[in-house]
Design brief:
Layout: E1 3-10, H1 16-32, E2 36-42, H2 50-59, E3 62-69, H3 76-92, E4 97-100, H4 108-123, E5 134-140, H5 146-163, E6 167-172, H6 180-187, E7 194-199, H7 206-221, E8 226-229, H8 237-252
Parallel strand pairs: 1-2, 1-3, 3-4, 5-6, 5-7, 7-8
Length: 337
Amino acid sequence: MARTGVMICGHGSRDPDAIDEIERLVQKLAPRLPDYEVAGSYLEFARPIIREGLEGLVEKGCERILAIPGMLFAAGHVKNDLPWEVNSFAADHLDIQIVMGRELAITPLLLKAAEDRIHAAEAHAHHDMARDETCLVVVGRGTNDSDANSNVAKVARMLGEGMGFGWTEVAYSGVAHPRVDDCLRRAAKLGFRRYLVFPYFLFTGVLVKRIYEQTQQVAGEFPQIEFLRAHYLDDHPQVVEAFIERVRETDQGVGAMNCQLCKYRTQIIGYEKDQGAQQTGHHHHVRGIGTDEGHHAHDHDHKHDHHHGHAHDHKHDHDHHGHDHGHGHYNPGRGRH
């Protein structure tokens, strides 16, 4: 009987630690999903790239593949780059059924994982302190998609209010503002005795390590204030459950991406030019280059705008050439690649 494959589609990183963590997550998912062939692949910086990963599942006998974004929010990677990769592969393999799932998004599972990470950071503090004397600083990746950036702010408010922090600030590692160091310096003037910095990231990498470094740097400027650094989400049990939840709903065809505020289909303030944009591929020059620092000049800190070069020109109500965000099966008759 034909086997169904599950492809966890990660972003990729030039940091070997990040790749190790993603692979560890895939290894944890596999025994929880015994009816599927589970594998991982990456958009850039690491191998296998998405196409190679999909081909690997086909070689293992999979005639149906569930492509699950290994990403928290739907910005350009989930709305544009990953569907392009999946659709391009599907157009070349008409005998393979591919269903693309949605991003992890904001779920009670991930909020619980975040709460546990924050609790753990407090537990390692040098002394006890009331929550209302602590300012929570939630740091997101930062994108040129205001919808995705606003989700970081929503997570921050839900954690801050739900856990009873005295105040909550939001920062971003790149592209969006405020950046981490600027945010912390400004927040330090609020007068809280403790600032707890929580990177709302799935895995480590250049950006997460930079967040910790900037936190330590600012802490040195304010020795009278305590700065705590919480661990990112990583392979927390609730994160594993969130991925399993996405796999199940994708397999059952019940997952639906929320496109209400997608800048590619709706005019969003400041991003009007992106409405109806044509789907294009990701940065080809960084696909699969590995984690060797000598391969590429930038460290992917998102100082560049990952999608500014796209000539987006959708004329198909954002169905990405026949793949409406992965909530149906690829139909080569509707699109082109």
